[in-house]
Amino acid sequence: MSGKFIVFDGPDGSGTTRQCAFLVDHLRESGQNVLLTTEPTESPIGQEIRSMLHRDTMPSPDATQLLFCADRANHVSTVIEPALRKGQTIVCDRYCLSTIVYGAAQGVDKQWLEYINAKFPKPDLTFITLPPFDVCMERLQNRKQRDQFEMENFQRRVYENYKSIEDPSVIFVDTSGSKTDTANFVWRQYQEHFTLDSCHHSSSTAK
Predict the structure, then answer these.
(1) Distance separating alpha carbons of residues 3 and 7, to the nearest angstrom
(2) Residue 33: partners with Cβ closer than 8 Å, 6 or more residues away
(3) Are 38 and 16 in contact (CB under 8 A)?
(4) Distance CA 91, CA 32 (A)
(5) How far is Cα 116 from Cα 63, in angstroms, rounded to an integer?
(6) I want to staple 46 with a disulfide (CB 3.0 to 4.6 A). Which of 41, 141, 155, 202 is the partner?
(7) What is the full DSSP assignment across 1-50?
(8) What are 58-81's pLDDT values in tens digits?
(9) Is 44 exposed, middle or buried (0-12, 13-18, 19+ CB in 10 A)?
(10) What distance in Å separates the CA atoms of residue 76 and residue 39, rounded to the nearest whole number?
């Protein structure tokens, strides 16, 4: 039995963490066995990344993104793949898209980043939280601690990179409205996606 794999991604300040938590609540209320996880992880590599983001200097952009990928490789083998094999539903706060989008905004070759991340399991559904850019910046300004990626000109490149993504398994979510309305929208989209997916699967197996 294989589980479902849902990812939330988006620029800093866009609300990925909050919307992950809301979806997990909805899924648990509906009786699903859910695992909530996040990247960077709490592993030694993930902790190093977190502390590195708050230092004055960082490694080169390609080295930085390789660290994120190393953390992901460990995350996939120790957490994501075992949970999927058990049939759990995984909700992950950030995944491969973050590396591709942020890395490209740093000037790292996008095709190289896509190649490195191609070996990892593909999410069944990705929500990109994307309120208006000014909303993200306003939220970042209210944070007590900022990291190396949270500068306005860099975030604008990140924002435009997310905005340009075209993929049938990606749903854009405007998180500028009420948290509850947004969470309900996400829940409806989740239900529709997997209902259509199972109908499509049943009709193709019937043939």
Answers:
(1) 13
(2) 3, 86, 87, 88, 89
(3) no
(4) 12
(5) 13
(6) 41
(7) ----EEEEE-STTS-HHHHHHHHHHHHHHTT--EEEEESS-SSHHHHHHH
(8) 889 999 999 999 999 999 999 999
(9) exposed
(10) 11
Give the Cα separation of 31 and 8 in Å (integer): 21
Single-letter amino acid, residue 78: T
Six token digits for residue 53: 């983001």
Question: Domain boundaries in the chain?
Answer: 5-206
The CATH homologous superfamily to which domain 5-206 belongs is P-loop containing nucleotide triphosphate hydrolases (3.40.50.300)
Nearest to 162 by CA among 5, 4, 15: 15
Tokens of 143: 């944070």
**From CA 14, how far away is CA 175, in angstroms rounded?**
7
Q: Quick one: residue 10, left, alpha or beta (phi over 0 = left, psi -120 to 50 = alpha)?
A: left
pLDDT tens across 86-130, in order?
A: 999 999 999 999 999 999 999 999 999 999 999 999 999 999 999
CA 152/CA 68 separation, integer angstroms: 22
Amino acid found at 79: V
